[in-house]
Amino acid sequence: xxxxxxxxxxxxxxxxxxxxxxxxxxxRDCLRMVHAVQSGHPGASLGCADFFTxxxxxxxxxxxxxxxxxxxxxLFFLSNGHISPVWYSVLAxxxxxxxxxxxxxxKLDSRLQGHPTTHEGLPGxxxxxxxxxxxxxxxxxxxxxxKIDGDKGLVYALTGDGELQEGQNWEALMFAxxxxxxxxxxxVDYNGQQIDGPTEKVLSLESLKEKFEAFGxxxxxxxxNDMAEITKALHYAKSLTGKGKPILNLMSTQMGxxxxxxxxxxxxHGSAPSDAQLEVALGxxxxxxxxx
Amino acid sequence: MKKYTYTEKKDTRSGFGxxxxxxxxRNENVVALCADLVGSLKMDAFIKDFPERFVQVGIAEANxxxxxxxLTINGKIPFTGTFANFSTGxxxxxxxxxxxxxxxxxxICASHAGLTLGEDGATHQILEDIGLMKMLPGMVVINPCxxxxxxxxxxxIMDYEGPVYLRFGRPVIPVFTPEDQKFEIGKAWMVNEGKxxxxxxxxxxxxxxxxxxEKLAELGIDAEIINIHxxxxxxxxxxxxxxxxxxxxxxCEEHNKFGGxxxxxxxxxxxxxxxxxEFVAVNDxxxxxxxxxxxxxxxxxxxxxxxxxxxxxxxxKV
Lengths: 292, 318
Fold this sequence. Notes:
Chain A is an alpha/beta fold. Chain A has ten helices and nine strands. In chain A, the strands form three sheets. Chain A has a five-stranded parallel sheet with strand order 3-4-5-9-8, sandwiched between helices. In chain A, strands 1-2 form a two-stranded antiparallel ribbon. In chain A, strands 6-7 form a two-stranded antiparallel ribbon. In chain A, α6 links the parallel β4 and β5. The longest helix of chain B is centred in the N-terminal third of the chain and has 15 residues, at 12-26. The radius of gyration of chain B is 19 Å and the shape is globular. A seven-stranded mixed sheet of chain B has the order 3-2-4-5-7-6-12, sandwiched between helices. Chain B has a five-stranded mixed sheet with strand order 9-11-10-13-14, with helices on both faces. In chain B, strands 1-8 form a two-stranded antiparallel sheet. Chain B is built from 13 helices and 14 strands. In chain B, α1 (12-26) packs parallel to α8 and α4 (61-72) runs parallel beside α6. By secondary structure, chain B is of the alpha/beta class. Chain B folds into two domains: 9-174, Thiamin diphosphate (ThDP)-binding fold, Pyr/PP domains (Rossmann fold); 189-315, Rossmann fold, CATH 3.40.50.
């Protein structure tokens, strides 16, 4: 399906409907992983399933035969590591490791730790994350490394919105435009929720778009739960690289998207569904690629 | 007592600066980062010759540690530079998660460690950094004793794959180790063989231990002096061999007695070979403003304190 992005015709690898089907399976994986160990973070995993699917199945130039350096490839860094279920699912579904390994999530001796890590050698992961606010800095470092090497691959990062309360993000946000790190596309999961409640009530982020612009980023906005729009937004972001500014995709999502009783509330940030809740939830999500 | 002489005094931070410049020449993957302390860290020569491999981060140490971790991913060897306080305590979680737990090949290079930073006072005089860094699994901790050894250590850590904490300081001190020395990480350096008491020292305290050894010799005490430039991994073998000969040990460090070299030695002795130990270290205190020499005297890190500790520990021999 071709569409226009910044005057370039983009030929997509999948139809939007195919991508939506993959995202549905990814959401099933997330819920089943969290349910199996009665721990983990389903809310923003569901909310970001469309972004991850679009990124890994459509946008990212990557090789599932993983190498840490990823020379010539695009790299992705997850700063809000607690949404590991969605990342693990997408990594497995795109060939980094066997889908059956998702059943080991958060269990003893698993490579699928509660929060992502390089420590157990899981393919696809290049840095540990979980303690918030660090991923953007790491992504900047990787982007600078590519620039030094003349490597044309891009660097993608995802941070949460509540996570922006961590000061290190603002050090990174100040650094990247000043140093013209224009091979970097950072997305913010703008769901307005955090553990203790809505971000507006916990510590309001206020005028995020204006803040990023004031820091010197090229800011685009997108609906992260509309597959056509998020795919288009990521392609558009890609077309903006190499022009002297880092790109920030301020992506609105709904925590818990895809399951009616989970959507739009912080209550499912870090709670697992019961047996009955899982059954209801799975009933709302099509099994498209076979459960693990 | 083997005679040690010196012709000049230099600061160990300049040894780092010279080592970093040389590292830049030898390996094009070496990159340097600094948080607004280029002059203090003596990074000017590197920046002049390799501007494309230098990153000025500004006063943002947390960001610096994260960027350094990211730079390792495509094979760069980042050396971060700031004061020891801002290299460790201020950024402990960044180092823990993004560098140590992630197994990244970052060289954390820390100047102005300890009391000898002097007049700036306790806010800048970290005495807890060795403890903080040695507790991190997989972290190598090095505190060389003079200009030449710091330069050699800087080059050695470039060739070592994994996270390293390199600690050095501000004051000028005697240059007494060879210019062309081979620095082996984790290998203690025998300063003087003796039979009555073992004195192990790290960093600026090594020269003070030599001065103490000379005084002890005048008192008829034959001290074995060992330079422990690598606190982790500790050279267990060298320390045990020496203590089995002398039967007692004094540990010397410009650091809090909690968490430093002394406690690492105590752990070794209690598990492998019981022997009395005395600590020449800061007694669980912050520092304060004064000249370096005044502080070293007030906080009992002088050669005379090492002599007293040696005499005391010898009386406790079984």
